[in-house]
Amino acid sequence: MNNCIFCKIVKGEAPSWKVWENETVYAFLDINPVSPYHTLVIPKKHFVNIFDISDFELREVISGVREVVKMYEEKLGIKNLQIVNSNGHAGQQDVFHIHFHIVPREEGDGQNIRWKTFPEWRSEFDEMILKLKGQ
Ligand code: AMP
Ligand code: ZN
Fold it and tell me: How many CB atoms are closer than 10 A to CB 65?
């Protein structure tokens, strides 16, 4: 993809702070970190998101996520983190080259991701499952 900032990073045409890579996957620090070592893990090939990435590449990326996590555990003692992946505009994806965020967390770090919940929707679960069965 010509105009993709993450493709440019992979090609070395835009700057990045690389933490890890292998043949298929590249991991680098997020330019607007929400915590120390906030990291993005991406496939070197361009895929928009979960809807178009191949099974092989997705497995490679998630294995890469784990490699970085293991490195952070071993070298930095990081034991708390969140892994976040957003897909589509309404899914709050901003960069349309699939990426997984690794967000190290600490007690009292002031960060918080909490969704609004709707327990009353439990009454619709049976109908929702039926829809999946095409009825
Ligand atoms: P998302 O909202 O999940 O699509 O996240 C996109 C992320 O990419 C944001 O956290 C940005 O800070 C990050 N980002 C955008 N451009 C760059 C860049 N050139 N280098 C590193 N991170 C970037
Ligand atoms: Zn790209």
Answer: 21
Report the top-level CATH class of 5-132. alpha beta
Instruction: Read off the DSSP letter of residue 49.
Output: S
Closest ligand relative to 6 C-alpha: 2
Q: pTM for this structure?
A: 0.97
- CA separation (Å) from 67 to 2, 30, 130? 29, 17, 39
Active site residue 99: yes
Token reading at 132:
């999946």
* Average pLDDT rounded to a whole number, residues 32-40: 98
What's the pLDDT score for residue 2?
77
Q: Is the CB of 88 under 6 A from ligand 1?
A: no
Q: Which residues surround ligand 2, an ion (CB under 5 A)?
A: 1, 4, 6-7, 46, 97
What does the pLDDT look like over 83-124, one tens digit per residue? Answer: 999 999 999 999 999 999 999 999 999 999 999 999 999 999
Ligand 1 atom at shortest distance from the alpha carbon of 9: 19
Mean pLDDT across the stretch 42-70? Answer: 98
Q: What is the CA radius of gyration of the chain?
A: 17
Residue pair 44/26 in contact by the 8 Å Cβ criterion: yes
